[in-house]
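Researcher: Structure for this, please.
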Amino acid sequence: MSAGKIFVSDEQGNYLIKFVGDVRVTLCGSLNHYMETIFGSHDVNKVVVDMLEAEGLDSTTLGLLAKLGLHCRKQYGIDVQVFCQNPSILRTLDCMGFDELFDIFQDVPEISAKLQSITSVNSEVDEIRKQVLEAHKLLVQLNPKNSSEFIDLIRALETGD
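Model: Predicted structure, token format:
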């Protein structure tokens, strides 16, 4: 798998997050920082996550996406649109319950956005631990069936082990 990259675009309240390659916890500080930008905006019309070039997403990335979806639904009354054709990622999204939170499409949309690489954020170890913990708790909240998969990690992160 190729190293992960995240690209973003914001044009008049239309936000796009594009995942390329294998997106892992090392990019989550930057992703979380960008999501805070979206959350701070009062003008959010649409949020799109383009996974068409994604090869893999780790559970922390998925947890942050759950956070994004829950916030957009609650604060803006919109569902995040996800575009993905990777069978493995689609299976994961389905198993984790994302089909309840996102509008998931397998077709290729026409997106003409000026993408820029996400701003790199170097987080402290404690901040990363906090983000990983929050992400996994959200995955359990999204689908309680995820609890058995993540309970040991959640407990370890809560106790600082």
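Researcher: Any notable elements?
Model: Residues 5-159 form a domain with the Transcription Regulator spoIIAA fold (CATH 3.30.750.24). The first helix runs from residue 28 to 39.
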